Amino acid sequence: MNITRSFWAAGALFTLLATPAFAADTINIGVPGANSGYLASYCVPSLNAAKFVAASHNENGGFID
User: Terminus-to-terminus CA distance in the chain, angstroms?
Assistant: First the structure.
């Protein structure tokens, strides 16, 4: 019985301490792409497209909580 309570108490403490880590002001978006080889020429346009979409989304208000 004490092990179960300790487990739940540790889980609750971890959740309370980790919650601020999820409330970031910025959202990082990864864009996969080839940096070398014959597909490297597709990387820059894909990155520019992701930047364009992020900028247009932010101009329209971004994410609403």
Answer: 40
User: How far is it, in rounded angstroms, from Cα 18 to Cα 22?
Assistant: 7
- 1-5, 12-16, 19-23: which has the minimum mean pLDDT? 19-23
Rounded Cα distance, 51 and 45, in Å: 10
What is the pTM for the complete model shown? 0.49
Backbone angles phi, psi at 3, to 5 degrees: -65, -40
Q: What are 48's two structure tokens?
A: 């520019």
Residue 9's closest CA among 60, 20, 1, 51? 1
Q: What 3-state class would DSSP assign to 37?
A: coil
